[in-house]
Amino acid sequence: MVKLRRVESLNNLSASLENYLETIAMLKRKKHYARIGDIAKSLNVKSSSVNVAINFLAEKNLVIHEKYGYVDLTDKGEKIALEVQRKHDILYQFLHNLLFIDNVVADKEACEIEHLVGIETVHKLEILHTLLKKYFLTKSEDIVNLEECLNKWKE
Amino acid sequence: MVKLRRVESLNNLSASLENYLETIAMLKRKKHYARIGDIAKSLNVKSSSVNVAINFLAEKNLVIHEKYGYVDLTDKGEKIALEVQRKHDILYQFLHNLLFIDNVVADKEACEIEHLVGIETVHKLEILHTLLKKYFLTKSEDIVNLEECLNKWKE
DNA sequence: CACAAATGTTAGATTAATATAAAATTTTTT
DNA sequence: AAAAAATTTTATATTAATCTAACATTTGTG
Asked: pTM (2 decimals)?
């Protein structure tokens, strides 16, 4: 019931293009700059593929790219990158720290879901997570023990 | 951090192909049969696109298709279809009935997430949903009131 | 039962995201 | 500063999923 062509998220960007923005933001945080080659390495794609994507994003005013130089986010691009990263973070925490999904799987699933869900859904997941952690679960208890936790707490 | 080419879920099927199987199962449930045109209408694609997909699925022994006749699922195809439908159902219930996401949005997001998450994740969401519904929430309370609910229940 | 309407199939085109390979530019080394 | 090495760019190809348009088959009606 889905078409996986262009125009997926609310930014009108495909999952792939959101990943490019996200990666640039991550590299800037870690290394203070992002080059075509860094992005390619991070995403496990060839630098020629990165070039195509960056040219497209530059046309949309989401990145700036001087030929043979650094890639940088515009304000608009940065805003999108931060939102995607926030979604990723909340989803990962929910899956790993609340549901106790293995960290590799949780990261993989967060990476994919982050491009599909609206901010409202993510926000509600965050509330749910916070409250449940606050009231019921200790760091080491798996969600499958939640029923026990609830009963214990009830007494 | 994702590649959106072939081989996505554990069935080695793309989201698109899983949707074809899911749709055939749905049509069989509703109308007791599925034809190329029914599938096309359900998925909002052209029947020529359905043909291409069905030929591929037939090669993989997931559907049977007599030329100009009905499309049917093999046992293998049905198993996959049912699993995807179960994922969809759990995700939709979680989003709509627990998080109170609008039904159209919840359905859209469930449709997309169902192809990305493992059965373990979905299973844990189901447990969480069941327990929370059982202990805290009445049908009409939004998750944003959860904190209040918890406090009330605590007294 | 013939033929029109509906339905299904095939062939070829398009788009997004990637790749490969070769050319262009920059950086490093000597 | 010239040659070698590394990086970036460009041009062209591939794959999945879709489309359009032309062709084939089946169904339904006079």
From this structure: 0.85
Structure tokens at A29: 């945080």
Quick one: which residue's CA is nearest to D21's C1'? B48
Residue of B73, B79, B84 whose CA lies nearest to B14? B84
Residues B43 and B61 in one domain: yes
User: Residues A1-24: pLDDT tens digits?
Assistant: 232 333 334 578 999 999 999 999
Decide if A124 and B16 are in contact by the 8 Å CB cutoff: no
Same domain membership, residue B108 and residue B96: yes
Residue-wise pLDDT for A62-103, tens only, equals: 999 999 999 999 999 999 999 999 999 999 999 998 888 999
Same domain, B101 and B122: yes
Which residues span the domain enclosing B116? 81-139
What residues of chain A lie within 8 A of the CB of B15, using their CB? Answer: 2, 4
The secondary element (H helix, E strand) that includes residue B10 is none
CA–CA separation, A16 and A34 (whole Å):
17
Closest residue to D10 measured CA to C1′: A48
Domain containing A43 — which CATH number?
1.10.10.10
A52/C19 CA-to-C1' distance in Å: 12
